[in-house]
Each structure stands twice: as structure tokens, then as C-alpha cells.
Amino acid sequence: MTAQEYPESIHAFSDDALGHHDATALATELRQGRVSVDEVWRAAQHRADKVAPFINAVAAVSEPGPLPTQRTANSGRFAGVPTFIKDNTDVRGLPTGHGSAAITASVCKQDSPFAQQYLAQGFTCLGKSTLPEFGFNATTEPAHGEPTRNP
Questions:
Q1: CA atoms of 90 and 7, how far apart (whole Å)
Q2: Are 72 and 80 spatial neighbours (Cβ–Cβ below 8 Å)?
Q3: For the whole model, what pTM was predicted?
Q4: Could you report the per-residue pLDDT of 97-108, keeping only the tens digit for each?
């Protein structure tokens, strides 16, 4: 995509299950049954897909299927709230590439201690987000791919 093809501004807000809620408000909506985990999952994935060509921020995507329910703790302040986890953290079922072409990413068999602690709060992992190669830089502009545009 050339610079001329990028819109001046983009957004993914729409009239969906996420509304205009932050994570805390969304957790309340889920707890009170006003939205379901599946509705929230689909809305979050749709928003991520909508902006993906413009910001290039997703390294790997979780498969929807039964995963949201499996990844959602029955308890936890943020039960059912979708999130992405950086590509330098092992998450069961997703590859970890550390933002580098030097790593052959393979699917992780278990969550890292950080992912365990984070997901224990009830978050559902939509996938992995990009990061600078091995996290060693302030910007994500890899030689092996498109830059990540961070708002």
C-alpha cells in the first residue's frame, strides 16, 4: 500500500458488542450479561481485521471456534474481555516469533508465566501483536515486512 492509498485517519468503532467501552466497562457488560463472550470476540476480531491493512499490528490470530470460552476464566475481573499479547510471549496454541525473521516460529504448547498470570484475569487472547525485532527498538519497522503504524 502506498502512502497515497492510506486514508488520512482510520477507526474501527461501530455499533457492535464492544460499543465505546474500555476494558473495565466491557468486563461489567459481560458480567451483567448484556453481551456474550462470543459477541465480543467477533466484534473485536472484526475491528482488528478492519484496520489490519493500515496498521499492520497483528502477528498471529487465534482461531475463534471454542477458543474464547476455553481461554476465559470463570472468574477474574476481566472475564471475557478480548486482548492481544505481544509476539515475544508464549501463548498456548499460537506461534512466537519475537518479531524476527531469524526465528522459526512454532506453535507453543503452553503459556509462559506472564501469559498465565495475564490470562488468569479472564482475558481472551485474540492473537499476537507485532513488536520490534526481539523488542530491541522503539519502532516496529522490520526489514522482513511492513512497518507497524502505532497511533
A1: 34
A2: yes
A3: 0.84
A4: 999 999 899 999
